[in-house]
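The protein record now logged underneath.
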Amino acid sequence: MRARILGWVVLLASLCLAGAGTAAYVLEAERIDNRVDASIAQEIEEFREFQRTGVDPETGRGFRSLDRLMETALSRNVPTGYERVLAFVNGEARFVQGSREGPPLSGDPEFVAAVRDVDGSGFGTVEVGGEQVRFAVLGLRMGQERGQYVVATLVGREHAELVETMRVYAAVAVVSLLLLSGAAWLVAGRLLAPLRLLRRTAHQISDSDLQQRIPVEGGDDISELARTFNAMLDRLEAAFTAQREFVDDAGHELRTPLTILRGQLELLDASDPVDVSETRALLLDEVDRMSRLVEELLLLAKSERPDFLRPGNVHLARLVDAVVDKARGLGPRNWHVDARPDAVLVADEQRLTQALVQLAHNAFKVTGPADTIAVGATVEDGTARLWVRDTGPGIDPAEGSRIFARFQRGSAGSRAEGSGLGLAIVSAIAAAHNGRVDLRSRPGAGAMFVIEIPIPDDTAMTGPTGQERA
């Protein structure tokens, strides 16, 4: 990638420098040609003016011969640079004025032929001795004499200076290109450093080491790529952690019922119908417990997946009523609704129902028929709060963080049946909604579990709070 970037930079820079040089050469060459033509035209115009107004310095009168006119005109003309002025009388070159550099024009047959080919007055271009010559001819006639006043410029010499300038430009461009290539190589290396670090990090990562991250600085596209890669590593680490926890938890919790199954089968007296019946009932109970355990573990493993939730509009008042109606089937308790707000929350209704029913089931297991279990919800300060409270024995606040771990039970529920995954599932459902579960309790004063879910702006429609329902 670094070599490709350098190649493209060198190619584009070369094209730009070559294009700029070509454009400068074409424009400057055109400017030289225009300047040469303007200079030649000015010389011709000055001769015409001298022909109209000039006088012979010997007689003080107008010129009576072309020889005298051209001799006087050329004696007063001082050509500049590579310019030459020639006078032809009756087809013969009589006078020449100007630079001695370059080929002799008056004796060159190609130049003389080109001048004679001009009918009257006009411009022409001819190559003499390998050099390009630009000239203008003014046809003259005086009496029986015919002549031509010629102004010529060695335009090739003018262009040669431009070519030399372009050679200097080319040398400077090559040096600049080399410096640019070195700078581009260094800059590309610095820009691609996060990619090299990303590659090395990817090589070093394995399923047992997902903690390495790429240090990110800046806000360019490559930095964003590194941040995206780090976020992917976070998700992978969370997925592998969940997988390891699932395997560890499954291995730990399934080992006991499997041992019980094996022990009961080894001790089974196949000839005793009573023993077979009792063992069958016990084994079926263990299989049911194992099935529930596997389902709960799978649910916890799925909680890390993006499709764990299926959000939709949840009417909190109907949700609270539905949870209480479902919970009544658990058994006789003083079931009560604390609050049922007329509000709509964007969430997964089935998961919230599952979490609240699980909390109600936990409360049912630690309370008696005379106790109260209440369900409620409120929406305030940008947060939806759903809770289940009971008047049971309560929970020691010191156990508040421990009981949400997998396979952990509070002291009040230590004798109750269950896998110890209920509160872990509730916590996972709350976390999937970007929320959390809070325990408010003290021993002897009941317990209250509150699920708090933040509400983004304009996603909850709230009306008057509903009445309490017993």
Observations:
- The chain has a mean pLDDT of 81.
- The radius of gyration is 52 Å.
